[in-house]
Amino acid sequence: KIAHSAPDAKIGVLARFNRTAAQLIIELRELGITASEEAGSAVTDSAAVQAILSLLHLADHPGDTVAQKHVDGSPLARIKGLASSDDPASAARVASDVRRAILTDGYGPTINAWTRELTPFCSTRDYNRLMQLVEIAFRYDADAPLRTSEFVRFPP
Fold it and tell me: What are the distances in angstroms from CA 25 to CA 7, 32, 42, 133, 156?
């Protein structure tokens, strides 16, 4: 009621638990109320975000079979054309493609494009976390190093 009666007001809501805050954000956004978490859960508590971070790690370390298996178990494998977690040549090709995209377009546009492709596979919560990652990526582009592993360590 307050948000609709005073659209320019800034309203704070405190929640005892992070999971409660995350659910409140989702419900407020579904009601058309702009909401954000100022504290609470990290962006990395999402499987979709973790898959993107694994893909970025794989770009820097194409021989990392753990990262490759993680990407292989997500929709990103099909999106990026990763043939199999047992195929080192496929991992090397995907890693090269990711590095080229980051170099050419930057982290923000690249991660935003992946987010658009992942959206059909995401819950509302995962989508919201992906959008937070996109915001972080655009901010990161200003001083972005080429090593994708540095970005993987960057998100809060």
Answer: 17, 11, 14, 16, 18
